[in-house]
Amino acid sequence: MIPPKLHELLVEQYGGALAATVEAGYMARPATFRVNGLHAFDAANELAKYGISVRPVPWYGDAFITENAAEEALIRTPFYERGDFYLQSLSSMLPPLYLDPQAGETVLDMTAAPGGKTTQLYSLSGGKALITACERDKIRFERLRYNLARQGATRVTALKCDALALDDAFSFDKILLDAPCTGSGTLSPHKPARFTAEYLAKCAVLQEKLLKKALRLLKRGGTMIYSTCSVLRQENEDILKKCLGGDCISEPVTPFEGLPLLPSAAETVCICPTELYEGFFLAKIKKLK
Ligand code: SAM
């Protein structure tokens, strides 16, 4: 059941036909995962030994879609505990790819738990980016630490803190703000939806504060990604409008071929929920020198 307020906002933003497409995409999806680039793991061959077949994702060599197994079956293989792969939705693999962390760069993952994107940033940089990961929730922070350890992301500095309280004297070459949101892109029949106008407004207030903070912590000449798993402009374009200007400008994101796109502001990408993808939004921001 789609919460009535969410339905109303989807129709207002996208029109009836497209809103119906979004709502039809709120469904269960096959298990997807990302191999740990720091491990030599031949996913297709190793998982075949356990009767699990997978297919590659065209836009990312580390990503796979299972064809005949649920997440539980993947978790039961020895590769899971060894950290050879990380269960992750395809859409949520996009922000680290677009941030493109390099060896020696200082990278802040502002709202990091449970750590899918932190461990991906680590893997993408060959373990050589200097990553700081913040999480304010105690239980989720423990989950982050567990996932960092399991994925062998030993050189990540994990801070259990409110990112808004970070000292502005810190500065980073790159920042990922994968903001807390209503999850309007990720509804599914198995996940009870909690969506109200009040919750949306509360998320938007926090998103604006976090993005303004991120822009203060970003070095001159640095880049950042703002992402949410929401398809609503109130949590996406509207937040950018409130925060960008002056030295902080939007940079174009070129969507990978084959991604199911919803209309979104110039230079941003909004993924439509489908049988493979969760709804997701991302924007790239540059702070001028
Ligand atoms: N990037 C994560 C991943 O890929 O695994 C998911 C992040 S989730 C969308 C947002 C996280 O932000 C939640 O774990 C939430 O507890 C955390 N959070 C919310 N407000 C925060 C704040 N002010 N400082 C730090 N973390 C915060």
Structure description:
The protein is α/β, with parallel strands linked by helices. The chain has 2 domains: 4-28 and 90-287, Vaccinia Virus protein VP39 (Rossmann fold, 3-Layer(aba) Sandwich), CATH 3.40.50; 30-88, 2-Layer Sandwich (Alpha-Beta Plaits), CATH 3.30.70. Helix content is 31%, strand content 23%. It is built from 10 helices and 13 strands. The strands form 2 sheets. Strands 5, 6, 7, 8, 9, 10, 11, 12 and 13 form a 9-stranded mixed sheet that branches. It has a 4-stranded antiparallel sheet with strand order 2-3-1-4. Helix 9 (197-217) crosses helix 10. The model has no long low-confidence stretch (mean pLDDT 97). Bound molecules: S-adenosylmethionine. S-adenosylmethionine binds next to helix 7 and strand 6.
